[in-house]
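The data layer described in this paper is built around a simple, fixed record for each protein. Such a record has a labelled line for the sequence and another for the backbone structure tokens. For reference, a complete record is included directly beneath this paragraph.
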Amino acid sequence: MSNDKRAASAPWIRTRLRTAPGAATALAVLVLVTAFLAAAFPRAVDAYETKGLRHDIATADAGRSTVEIARPQPGLELPQEQREAETRSPELTRVGEALLKALPAPLRADASSVAYGVRTTKPSVATEPWLPKPDAVPPKLTYVAQSGLKDHATLASGAWPTASGGVTADSRAVQGAVTEETAAELKVKVGATITLPTAAQEPITVTITGIVAPRDPKGSYWSADPLLRSPSLVPDPGSSFPVNFWTGTVLLAEDTGPVLLSTAAEPVVFWRIPPDPTGLTGPDGSRLTSVIASLESGPGLLEVRRIAGGTAVVGTGLGTVVEANARMRDAISPVIAVAALGIGSVAAVVLLMTGALIAARRRNELALMRSRGGSLRGIGGRLLAETAVTVLPASALGLLLAVLLVGEGRWWPGALAAAGVGLLVCVALPVRTTLQHIRPTLHGAREDMVSARPSRRRTVAELTLLVLAVGAVTALRRRGTSTGDGTDLLVSAAPVLVALIAALVLVRLYPLPLRLATRPMARLRGAIGFLSLARAGRSSAGGALPLLALLLALATAAFGGSVIAGIGDARDDAALASVGADARVSGMGDRVTLPDELVRTVSGLDGVRDAAPVRVEYSVAMPEAAAGGDAGTGTDTAAGTGTAGDDAADAGDAATAALVGVEPTSYARLARTHGLPAFPAARLRATGPSAPLPEGTKAGPERILPAIASPAVAARLGKEPRAVRTLSGDFQVQVVGTTAQVAAVSSTDFLIVNAASLEQKAPTTLLLAGAPDPGKLRAAVDENGKKFVVQLRSEERARYVNTPMQAGAERIYLAAVAAGAGYALLAVLLSLLQTAPERKTLLARLRTMGLTTAQGRRLLAFEATPQALLAAGGGLFTGWATIALLSPGVDLVPLALAGVAGSDTGPVALRTDLWSLGLPAAGVVALAAAVAGVQAWWASRRGSITELRAGDSR
């Protein structure tokens, strides 16, 4: 076999592929799918990180993301001509082009929006009598001679301002323009003149020749300094009274910068360079942070000063934007690593199972070659060659599909992952086969799990894995998935280690019920039960591998499903906390009440199942904390949040609270509908001292109203009645219960009373349960004026899925759940196929002894049932245990709520998702039963002679 190897290799490979094309094709398809998933994962991570970085920079406020280089006006020691030349367009253009070329990679500029010029930094008072003066304070204006006005605006009326005749520092008349918003608010018309004071007391007359409309109002040209586009009414910081004045910007002609040198408004020369994020990738984030730091105070700043002048400074908030993106990426990466390691481990085990199946099918063939003098090196080399011919092209094709189908990303991580898949398959089969044939052996005795005894080496290995798993789970529970120094692979592998230990424990425990069940079955008259248990107890030495694959796949699918469910629940809870119900109608201010007609109209709309009018008053001053430290210890807890005495330490924090007046019955129904804590409506019954007042009657401070309070407010008020002063009347409240959440307000400090007991009962908010049509709801509200606001829970919920990084991470977890379920089913199929020839031969022999077709189906079904139930039950328990053990260390806030202003960013823990836990496990049992039934049906069609005519030594 060693002679003329080159001539023998090709016929061997070609012959093997022709002999078993089905097996080769199945192996190639499995490798193709696995290589695609392995290569697609790093590319998908790169893709969502890249999109996230670009999205954050593109959507950031232009005032933060724009890089502005500025320097003071040229020094007074310079000649007048030189000072003026440095503020004219040719010099500014030259410096701007040099700055763009000097930008260090990966920072690149959006050349179409670059702006430069001269602007004043100190607002000048405009004394024209026709300008609006709220609170009798004249407006203060800034002036800018900025490039590119005609490229970024359209002329609404008048003419473009020009710098005719050459403008110098001694000029006293220039032309300017304002935007439509500035003209509307400041009453500016074409032809109006504004006086700009100078240091020489000779004012400059600015004639407004045109009114312009921005082409892209939200672009960096107009938004880097919002006053360019829109004026603002601001408070006067130098006044002891609350007075406001207008501030805005006048746009001078492009080449009129020299005229500002004569003013006392502290002019500066500037270059605004907006970043172009289209060329950035996710890995560029760290480089971009260091580049920005260098520009602000490092070698980059020295280069800027060499070009723009020794006094130039660089200011930008781009570094803050990139750092926020990096924090979110670092928070999400460890959670994603858990899914990656889980699916990777499942895929590796399934590939090893495939190698084991192929080795088992070819064991007799290779044993014959070994007995006839075949060397281990020769056998292993031929196996490696025939495997590589099938596997390597499949791996390459999987990599190609990942590159074509998955968004842009670095190619080498995917290439390494696909190569790892191919290498594992190419090496696993030859190594496993050669290890089995180190010594030529005759047909060996069968191995039973019932009679097998684990060796000492196996016990030591299992104990070592147990220690690693316990350490990883403990670390994850204590410090979470993020360690502060990147992703800890041991911590991220905790679910895999838990599943591994569960598999080893179940394999050890599995023979016990079989031993107990075999003895009574042997005494029964029928042979089916005994035969099925005897077959179930018979296993090869590698019988733990299928169980390990199933537990890993089911645990990974359960973990991924729990992550998805936790994200959805967190967003639902945050939307409910923000809106309070499915829909909410409220006034724009605390004192705006809802008319009765509006309440009746909205409550009667189609889709509205229930309505609860509520009166909300914010920032009600609470009395001083009750003395003695026993505040609230006697109150009952309405929502199961513990006694209020637990929050006595927080009593000083609830200095103000929201007063919520409710109609107890309707509010209790609404709270029950939305899954809020049970509300004790009976405790707020308006009877006795808290009975409703007649219309127009003023309440006295001696009235005592029962109240449901938040734990902190209950701790502050104590058990005794306490007086409060509100816009709804002055009265005393006595806490009769506590609850942790109220639908009407998102504040954690609140006080709920019966609205019927208040002096002012008119509701300020209407909470709706149901799904009313948004258009009809807003139309009904708008009929009562524009001072009411409509909020929908569905619209609030949609705000939490707006970043590419979050959406990409969610897609990866959805893929993890699907891949975990798929590999679980494949593991079941492989484990059943490995023993399929034995089962077919067994059925053929038993049919010669009188076994019927129905009995054969029951035999195979009963044989597969113990392993299927073991895998399904073990998978359910492992998935549940993994989630229960790891939930304290996994925070889903970065995936669920990060980046949304005003969202509740409290910890979001994992919870068990029954669908992702139960469906794959049920699929395992169903597939095992289906495969057993198909095998029995197929064996019954072939007949006993077909199966036994070739002879079988087993």
Q: What stands out?
A: The first strand starts at residue 67 and ends at 72.
